[in-house]
């Protein structure tokens, strides 16, 4: 049985990926520092899969602890989610973001090099494309200067991995996520935003639940059909499955280059107003919202061309926006 290390395995995307790994028969070891999640997620994963993953509470900025972990565990592959992810906070606190998102990445890669470990999957983001000149966005679109420190940690992270792959014959895949939403069908795991949510869907569900008074729609003067910004929302379970596909590509040595990257989205763009309408249908509740000015740093439209990912990873999305929104709503109802 292959043993896979999942860093950040108790987070939103990490926890869903752990479940899919266990379903596929992998043995999972989780590292998480619990800085943006709770230990209860481990029990919820166990309830879904019937098997408790091995768990280590480690802060990956502590190099010695990282080394000790690798001294004691034999690993066949790594899926690295652990990172800070709040865009606004990253701009106010760039050094903490570089220390955590870049520092821990470097430590893990050093351990891999020192022990000749292989097979590394990295959480990247469509934010690397900025406002792409052409839609849908293919992997050939150029990487644009990052708008935020968070975005820059993803760009630099990819560069570090690419150079490491070249120098040390490591094989790695970066997955460039579009907008992950939704919750597991069991409604036992989902997104747990701390404080006021910055992302659209958790803000929508909290508004519908009465936790927030109203949703602010950031701008209706974009050059899009209804004036609101367009994104590619992907069900988190579909996204989790893309990690399994990427991991198998590396384990089976089907990769064409040492370092590869793929767009992981649904391939479909939805405007903020379309999301609101779909949510109202899924929750059978009207949503209280108002139009306000644009949010600084937001782009007009981003959605993926998934042709390359579909073909190379032998993966495609199976769930709809309606299913994702309905699961997000059920998850919200369970929280409040
Ligand atoms: C944001 C980040 C992106 C990150 C991604 C991770 C910014 C500028 N970008 O992407 O770097 O990779 O999250 O999930 O923060 N919206 C509203 N009202 C709200 C919240 C959002 O109208 O209260 C709109 C936004 O303007 C945007 C859309 O909803 O058009 C989606 O927003 P969000 O969920 O924050 O994702 P992104 O901005 O695409």
The gist of it:
Helices cover 41% and strands 16% of the residues. The chain has helices at residues 12-23, 40-49, 63-72, 87-92, 94-115, 149-168, 200-208, 236-251, 272-283, 307-313, 321-335, and strands at 3-7, 27-32, 54-57, 77-80, 120-125, 172-177, 179-181, 215-218, 230-231, 233-235, 259-264, 270-271, 289-292.
Describe the structure.
The structure is a single chain. This protein is an alpha/beta fold. It is 41% helix and 16% strand. Strand 1 (3-7), helix 1 (12-23) and strand 2 (27-32) form a beta-alpha-beta unit. The longest helix is centred in the N-terminal third of the chain and has 22 residues, at 94-115. It starts with a strand and ends with a helix. The mean pLDDT is 97. Residues 87, 125, 127, 150-151, 179, 198-200, 203, 215-218, 229, 231, 272, 295, 297-298 line the site of uridine-diphosphate-N-acetylglucosamine. Uridine-diphosphate-N-acetylglucosamine is lined by residues 87, 125, 127, 150-151, 179, 198-200, 203, 215-218, 229, 231, 272, 295, 297-298.
Order of helices and strands: EHEHEHEHHEHEEHEEEHEEHEHH
Give the tally of β-strands: 13
Which structural class do the helices and strands define? alpha/beta
The dominant shape is: globular
What can be said about the biggest beta sheet?
A: 7 strands, parallel
* N-to-C span: 39 Å
Task: Based on the coordinates given, report the CATH architecture of one domain.
Answer: 3-Layer(aba) Sandwich
Number of helices: 11
| Overall mean confidence score, pLDDT | 97
CATH topology of one domain: Rossmann fold
State the name of the first-level CATH class of one domain: Alpha Beta
């Amino acid at each position: 049985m292959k043993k896979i290390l999942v860093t950040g395995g108790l987070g939103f995307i990490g926890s869903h990926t752990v479940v899919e790994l266990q379903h596929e028969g992998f043995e999972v070891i989780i590292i998480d520092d619990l800085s943006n999640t709770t230990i209860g997620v481990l029990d919820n994963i166990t309830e879904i899969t019937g098997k408790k993953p091995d768990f280590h509470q480690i802060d990956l900025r502590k190099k010695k602890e990282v080394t000790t972990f690798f001294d004691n565990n034999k690993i066949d592959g790594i899926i690295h989610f652990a990172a800070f992810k709040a865009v606004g906070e990253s701009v106010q606190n760039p050094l903490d973001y570089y220390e955590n998102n870049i520092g821990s990445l470097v430590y893990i890669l050093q351990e891999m090099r020192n022990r000749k470990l292989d097979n590394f999957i990295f959480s990247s983001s469509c934010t690397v494309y900025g406002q792409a000149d052409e839609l849908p966005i293919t992997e050939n679109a150029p990487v644009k200067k990052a708008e935020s420190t968070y975005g820059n940690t993803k760009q630099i992270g990819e560069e570090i991995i690419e150079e490491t792959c070249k120098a040390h014959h490591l094989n790695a895949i970066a997955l460039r996520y579009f907008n992950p939403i939704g919750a597991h069908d069991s409604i036992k795991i989902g997104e747990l935003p701390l404080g006021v949510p910055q992302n659209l869907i958790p803000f929508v569900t909290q508004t519908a639940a009465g936790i927030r008074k109203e949703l602010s729609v950031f701008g209706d003067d974009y050059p899009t059909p209804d004036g609101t910004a367009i994104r590619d929302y992907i069900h988190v379970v579909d996204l989790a499955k893309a990690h399994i596909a990427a991991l198998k590509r590396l384990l089976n040595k089907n990769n064409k280059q040492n370092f590869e990257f793929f767009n992981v989205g649904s391939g479909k763009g939805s405007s903020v107003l379309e999301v609101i309408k779909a949510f109202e249908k899924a929750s059978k509740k009207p949503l209280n919202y108002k139009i306000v000015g644009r949010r600084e740093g937001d782009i007009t439209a981003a959605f993926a061309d998934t042709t390359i990912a579909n073909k190379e990873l032998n993966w495609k999305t199976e769930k709809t926006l309606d299913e994702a929104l309905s699961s997000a709503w059920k998850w919200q109802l369970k929280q409040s």
